Amino acid sequence: MSGSDAAIVAHHQASLTAYVRSLVDSPPVAADIVQETWARAIPSLRSGKVENPRAFLYRVARNLVNDGARDRKKWSPWFGAEEMAAAIPDDTPDPERHALAQDSLRIVLELAETLPPRCREIFALRKLEGLDQNEIAARLGITRGAVEKQLRHALLVLATRMGEIESGL
Questions:
Q1: Which of 55, 87, 119 represents a domain boundary (last residue)?
Q2: pLDDT value of position 79
Q3: Between helices 53-87 and 3-23, what is the axis angle to 10°?
Q4: 68 and 132 inside one domain
Q5: How many domains does the chain have?
Q6: Which of 51-62 are b and which e, b meaning 16 or more Cβ less than 10 Å from the residue's Cβ?
Q7: Contacting residues for 97 by C-beta, under 8 A, at least 6 apart
Q8: Does the reported pTM lie above 0.70?
Q9: How far apart are alpha carbons 26 and 8 in whole angstroms?
Q10: What is the pLDDT of residue 32?
Q11: Are 72 and 140 within one domain?
């Protein structure tokens, strides 16, 4: 910035800043607009073709404020949706529910260790690795019916034992 640029900025900075702050309600946004005003106005001010620098600066600033308002209006449907999404209750479990779920999972895994070996293996392939019955049958070389029978047995045993634990027996 040359000495003449600095002199122009020094002369108009306070009034330009006050003007922009009267147009927008956010000091950081106002500061950004003032900075952008200077970036756009200085080349024209240097040329010496601007008769009224103050009016020119105010017009540039006003145009930037209007551009910002237009942009906000253009994007408001998306911002509105984001704000509405923030109003939707969070269904993430609270720490207590998370701890209870962790305890239940630990108990199920411990109970699964008590299942017969083939039953435990099929249960682990289905529930822990996410394989479907056909994939398990192919991997173990057994029929789909055998897989389903072992899964039913595992789930029945685990549900019964979990019920016993929850009822305090």
A1: 87
A2: 58
A3: 50
A4: no
A5: 2
A6: eeeeebbbebbe
A7: none
A8: no
A9: 25
A10: 92
A11: no
Using the 3D structure, point to which of 46, 62, 87 is the last residue of a domain.
87
83 and 124: one domain? no
The residues, any chain, with a CB within 8 Å of residue 58's CB and separated by 6 or more, are: 16, 19
Residue 169 has pLDDT above 60, yes or no: no
The backbone torsions φ and ψ at residue 52, rounded to the nearest 5 degrees and listed phi first, read: -125, 90
47: CATH: 1.10.1740
Q: 68 or 142: which carries more pLDDT confidence?
A: 142
Q: What is the largest CA-CA distance in the chain?
A: 94
What DSSP designation does 13 have?
H
Q: Are residues 49 and 81 in the same domain?
A: yes
How far is Cα of residue 69 from the mean position of the Cα atoms in its chain? 25
Express each pLDDT in 48-88 by its tens digit.
Answer: 888 898 999 999 999 999 988 887 777 666 655 555 556 66
Q: Which domain holds residue 15?
A: 3-87
Please state, as a whole number, how many other Cβ atoms lie within 10 Å of the Cβ of residue 127.
16
pLDDT tens, position by position, 85-132: 566 666 777 888 888 889 888 888 898 999 999 999 999 999 989 999
For residue 156, what is the domain's CATH number? 1.10.10.10
Q: Does one domain contain both 82 and 101?
A: no
The number of residues in the chain equals 169
